[in-house]
Structures are given as C-alpha cells and as structure tokens.
C-alpha cells in the first residue's frame, strides 16, 4: 500500500493554514515534504500529522517556532531511545557486548536531550 500524497494547497486547506506558512515551516526544517518530478511539494500522512502537532503547539499552547524546533528535536531523540529501552527491558538473552552497546547508545541519546534542554 502506498502512502497517500497531498499537494501543498490541499494540505493547507485540510490544516486550516496558509500555504506560505507551510513553506516557512519547511524553510525552518520543521517539515520535509517530498517533491514531485516537477518540484511540487507533496505531504504524506506522517507530514500532515507532524503539521497538526506544530499547529497545536503554536496555536493552542503558544509555543514559538524556536520552541517547536526544540520540542520536535527532543521527540525525535525519545523516538530513537524507545526501541533501545524495549530491547534492554525484554527477556532476550544477549551477550554483554550488545547490552553495553545499547547502554552507550542510550547514554548518547540522553546527552543529546540534555544539550537540547540546555542542561
């Protein structure tokens, strides 16, 4: 099954946003829409969900765009940490090297969160 693609005009309408706002979010790196062969922006369901989150953070919670960038970066780190934690908590028997490698990866991700938070 292929992921549905939505052109910028339809994405803006669905989200209740101006297309220029979507372009601005792309320039800031908040979203990364794919491009057609003709260089038109197309948004996947995942990108639309991300834009809904950004809209909620900005409109409902009053977070500025710099704050949105930080929150999205932290969310991405947490998403990378989640499977590492699940592997460490599972009953799988693995060797000490794998376990130590996952601990090091988790440590690096925690350091990234600390840096993003300015701690």
Q: Helix share of residues?
A: 55-70%
What is the residue-averaged pLDDT?
Answer: 87
Q: Helix-strand pattern, N to C?
A: EHHEEHHH
In the CATH hierarchy, what is the architecture of the largest domain at level 2? Answer: Orthogonal Bundle
Domain tally: 2
> Going across the major beta sheet, what is the strand order?
1-3-2
Beta-strand residue percentage = 5-15%
Largest sheet geometry: 3 strands, antiparallel
**Tertiary shape:** elongated
Low-pLDDT stretches: none
Number of helices: 5
Helix/strand-derived category reads mainly alpha
Mind telling me the C-alpha Rg?
A: 18 Å
> Quick one: CATH class of the largest domain?
Mainly Alpha
The number of E-state strands comes to: 3
CATH topology of the largest domain: Multidrug-efflux Transporter Regulator, Chain: A, Domain 2
Termini Cα gap: 43 Å
Could you give the topology of this structure?
Blueprint: E1 6-7, H1 8-15, H2 19-27, E2 34-35, E3 41-43, H3 45-60, H4 65-89, H5 96-116
Helix pairs in contact: 4-5
Please describe what this structure looks like:
- This protein has 119 residues and is mostly helical.
- It has 2 domains: 57 residues, Multidrug-efflux Transporter Regulator, Chain: A, Domain 2, CATH 1.10.1660; 51 residues.
- Helix content is 66%, strand content 6%.
- The chain has a 3-stranded antiparallel beta sheet with strand order 1-3-2.
- Helix 4 runs antiparallel to helix 5.
- The radius of gyration is 18 Å and the shape is elongated.
- The N and C termini lie far apart (43 Å).
């Amino acid at each position: 099954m292929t992921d549905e693609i939505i052109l910028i005009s339809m994405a803006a309408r669905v989200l209740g946003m101006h297309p220029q706002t979507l372009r601005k979010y792309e320039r800031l790196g908040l979203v990364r829409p794919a491009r057609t062969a003709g260089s038109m922006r197309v948004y996947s369901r995942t990108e639309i969900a991300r834009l809904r989150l950004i809209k909620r953070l900005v409109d409902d919670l009053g977070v500025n765009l710099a704050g949105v960038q930080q929150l999205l970066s932290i969310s991405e780190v947490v998403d990378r940490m989640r499977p590492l934690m699940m592997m460490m908590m599972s009953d799988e028997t693995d060797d000490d090297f794998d376990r130590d490698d996952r601990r090091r990866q988790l440590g690096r991700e925690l350091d990234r969160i600390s840096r993003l938070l300015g701690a």
